[in-house]
Amino acid sequence: xxxxxxxxxxxxxxxxxxxxxxxxxxxxxxxxxxxxxxxxxxxxxxxxxxxxxxxxxxxxxxxxxxxxxxxxxxxxxxxxxxxxxxxxxxxxxxxxxxxxxxxxxxxxxxxxxxxxxxxxxxxxxxxxxxxxxxxxxxxxxxxxxxxxxxxxxxxxxxxxxxxxxxxxxxxxxxxxxxxxxxxxxxxxxxxxxxxxxxxxxxxxxxxxxxxxxxxxxxxxxxxxxxxxxxxxxxxxxxxxxxxxxxxxxxxxxxxxxxxxxxxxxxxxxxxxxxxxxxxxxxxxxxxxxxxxxxxxxxxxxxxxxxxxxxxxxxxxxxxxxxxxxxxxxxxxxxxxxxxxxxxxxxxxxxxxxxxxxxxxxxxxxxxxxxxxxxxxxxxxxxxxxxxxxxxxxxxxxxxxxxxxxxxxxxxxxxxxxxxxxxxxxxxxxxxxxxxxxxxxxxxxxxxxxxxxxxxxxxxxxxxxxxxxxx
Length: 470
Ligand SMILES: NC(=O)C1=CN([C@@H]2O[C@H](COP(=O)(O)OP(=O)(O)OC[C@H]3O[C@@H](n4cnc5c(N)ncnc54)[C@H](OP(=O)(O)O)[C@@H]3O)[C@@H](O)[C@H]2O)C=CC1
Ligand SMILES: O=C(CO)[C@H](O)[C@H](O)COP(=O)(O)O
Known about the structure:
alpha/beta; Rossmann fold; N-(1-d-carboxylethyl)-l-norvaline Dehydrogenase, domain 2; 7-stranded mixed β-sheet; binds ribulose-5-phosphate; NADP binding; phosphogluconate dehydrogenase (decarboxylating) activity
């Protein structure tokens, strides 16, 4: 008897995804580069499940029914190419490789191209939900050919998270569409995490709230419009005590945020495609700035930061923070969706944004109650991916903008950096501005480089001789 599917890479994600697949009734062969990890997995975590370990790639591939379906859950980058190259001698035309890691979408396009020549099918599949999601139901974002997707559709729908709107898996689109959407998902994830961190900073520094008190506020918010996975884990984090010191664990964690690349790729891609995503970009910048801990410690002793003593109403401020956070989260999603839509047109992905929002509703890290509302907006006007153009968005943001402004001003008065919130506000103001000062930019460009400009009062391209050249 051959096994239905194979999975390579038994770290956090691979182990849990393999268990999830097996628990849905599929027999699965597993392989990991380091054999000890495979042994440990099978000994410690596999019980009744039809999970079969292999210690060499040839017998792993031979254990699979044809056409073979092999999921890669290995480190993104070169390891994916290495594994594909090691697998190729054992594969036949019609076999399918599914890359479930956080691969860069351009790598995925290249791999699809290269493997097509060998008649090997390939899906680039974003997986979101961390280890819990992988085990109990992640959000799955597969992209590639329909033919490849059809081979595994039934299994993917079974292992994905479920919501009232169906399984959190859909055929996202052609080529690297799946990995593109997962990349932007992560860009939005970075922004929401940073926005939550910023309101946390205000609460602890301006209101002198304890971590436990902040946890209580976060929990209350999680019962309302801000209901989301990231809000939920944040209140749980606030309450966790460090076993060694008895202090809230969050208070003994060093303030240097790491990153593996997906947020940075989102910003780089947005710049390449010419779509503004300042809030997502600022979340990346915030992580980069956080990394300069020693420099910050030194500069904090020398750089003057004027701070005002303010008498504030705690309840009012907390209400403002909640609304400001909602404002920032909405803006972050709207920037990400616009980027996905532009990529869909540029790369012919054919992505249905409403479906993307649907499959983000469950299992994934950015799942949030707000997604229902965003879907309503997109469904109302599928041709316009810019959420801010909808009347619903105008009404939603109307009562949040003042709160966001007050929090932003408070940040200035107290010297608290609010990179994401401020950028969300400025993005909103910029898009709501008929006359930006870009006329001066054009004049400057024309002055020093004869780059020309357009005029507001007549058609054409113009150049001025700003100074006589001798
Ligand atoms: N952790 C998370 O929350 C999430 C992770 N992802 C993505 O899923 C993928 C797997 O993530 P995660 O489980 O965290 O594991 P890691 O990203 O830490 O990768 C570890 C796995 O990759 C294997 N590996 C590394 N280099 C090679 C190589 N050159 N050849 C073969 N195998 C190699 C390791 O094998 P060995 O044991 O031999 O070292 C191990 O199985 C990554 O792309 C990640 O970005 C996606 C969503 C969430
Ligand atoms: O994809 C994920 C969640 O959706 C992974 O957890 C990823 O590692 C998060 O990105 P980073 O490590 O850069 O914070």
